[in-house]
Amino acid sequence: MLARALCLSLLLEVALYVAVASEIFDASPAAAGLAALAGVLGLRALLVAASYACAFAWHSPAPRLSAAQTIRMVLAEYAAFVVCFVLIFPVERWWMGTDRLPGANRGAAGRRPPVLLVHGYGCSRGAWWWLRRRLEAAGWTVATISLEPVYASIDDYVEPLARRIDAVLAQTGADRLLLVGHSMGGLVARRYLQRCGSARVARLVTLGTPHQGSQLAHIGAGENARQMRPRSDWLRALANPAPLLDTVVIYSPHDNFVMPQANLELPAATARAIDGLGHLAMLFSPRVAIALLAALAAAGRAAGSRR
Questions:
Q1: Domain for residue 28, yes or no?
Q2: Of 88, 123, 143, 170, which has the fewest CB atoms closer than 10 Å, so is most exposed?
Q3: The domain containing residue 149 runs over which residues?
Q4: Max alpha carbon distance in the chain (Å)?
Q5: How many angstroms separate the CA atoms of 171 and 61, rounded?
Q6: What is the pLDDT of residues 21-37, one digit of tens each?
Q7: For residue 17, is it within any domain?
Q8: Is residue 297 part of a domain?
Q9: 151 pLDDT exceeds 60?
Q10: What is the pTM of this model?
Q11: Best CA proximity match to 255, nearest among 245, 268, 264
Q12: What is the pLDDT of residues 187-224, one digit of tens each?
């Protein structure tokens, strides 16, 4: 499991920093602890800085940000990175619990369709901690899924996603649901639709999905990273045929994981660009939440009118 692997790697990392501070620099226990904290935070700062360096090298034309906007964007992305990979993912069960799905006996007539959130590469359902709360506060029934193993082929996630869709619909009594995918999760959802059809899905909304691949995938681990390289055979196969249902693409033209950022766009889809956001910061952005709620509400109204 991703959570166990992250817990172990984090503990080993902290132990290494403490050992170096204690043995080499003869630091006190308190100083060694502070050194470990600085090491954990510093390493993640370097990773975020490297991602933005790559994003700048491969950037697409985008609205120019002021220095203050750029600093806020980078700090928000750094905070999101730390929150996800240091605080939430290693103990995801503490943060997420079980999905709160109403029973089918409550009756599906007149209810909005449930929402199923599909996370991205190297993540877990814990990625949705903040957005799930926002959606539920707006009255949506929200389900999640964790895709494992982490570095498998994207094709291997289709069957687990299909089973989760069936389970959510059976438990809620709904006929169809709304799929929301962040990053690679949008590609998983598109592959599901390509293989299984759209009979059980009312709309797809993607957040920061590399629909045409990302140069950063060249340094990623696993078959799924290779599949997300620009012009890969897998992406070409995914593009034919075109998406089978109405799709809304929400993305940032300043994304630091998907590069060039034009690769976030999907032909024939409805696009909503939100400036000044990093890839992980989308998961904690009020502006993204507003755009996502609008896309879901439109799909919910359309689904209700067909009843």
A1: no
A2: 170
A3: 95-99+110-305
A4: 71
A5: 45
A6: 999 998 999 999 999 99
A7: no
A8: yes
A9: yes
A10: 0.95
A11: 264
A12: 999 999 999 999 999 999 999 999 999 999 999 999 99
The neighbouring-strand residues paired with 251 are 273
Provide the β-strand partners of residue 270: 248
* 183: CATH: 3.40.50.1820
- Number of structural domains found in the chain: 1
Between CA 90 and CA 272 the distance in angstroms is 32
CA atoms of 151 and 154, how far apart (whole Å): 9
Between the alpha carbon of residue 140 and those of residues 79, 101, 125, 247, 291, the distances in Å are 27, 10, 17, 19, 15
Quickly count: other Cβ atoms within 10 Å of residue 97's Cβ.
8
Q: What is residue 232's three-state secondary structure? A: coil
d(CA 8, CA 119): 22
Residue 99 phi/psi, 5-degree rounding, is -65, 140
DSSP secondary structure letters along 51-67? HHHHHHHTPPP-PPPPH
Contact 204, 179 (CB under 8 A): yes
For 253-290, what is each residue's pLDDT tens digit?
Answer: 999 999 999 999 998 899 999 999 999 999 999 999 99
Mean pLDDT over 227-234 rounds to: 98
Is 108's pLDDT higher than 90?
no
219 Cβ contact partners less than 8 Å away, ≥ 6 residues apart: none
The pair of structure tokens assigned to 135 is 């959606």
**Residue 182 is assigned to a structural domain of this protein:** yes
Cα–Cα distance for residue pair 85/169, rounded to 1 Å? 31
